[in-house]
Design a protein that fits this description.
Length: 103
């Protein structure tokens, strides 16, 4: 019971007005959701751009749908790396090797 009292005291000290506690909590959740949405949209756009660049470089049919799906599943940081690295790829084998090492 002491832990509950300590938590209550800490919350009251941090948020003297109880209504601010919920408002702050909700604001944090909303901001986190917005941030995740922005990252997801960025990732989707970067994946699409990478696939377009690779298809232009190696041919429309060279980058298959399964490869495009693999690229689409990469986290944003990896997509940024791919966007730079693909400039140095000389063959589709380079892409396959890169994906095998970075998934």
């Amino acid at each position: 019971m002491r832990n509950t009292e300590d938590l209550g005291a800490a919350l009251q000290q941090a948020f003297p007005e109880p209504e601010n506690l919920m408002k702050t909590f909700i604001d944090e959740l909303l901001e986190k959701g917005r941030e995740e949405g922005r990252e997801e949209a960025q990732g989707s756009g970067r994946a699409e751009m990478a696939v377009q660049q690779l298809r232009r470089k190696f041919g429309e049919k060279a980058v298959t749908k399964p490869m495009a799906v693999r690229i689409g599943k990469l986290p944003l940081a990896r997509l940024k790396e791919l966007g730079v690295e693909l400039l140095d790829f000389t063959s589709l084998a380079d892409l396959k090797r890169w994906l095998a090492n970075h998934e």
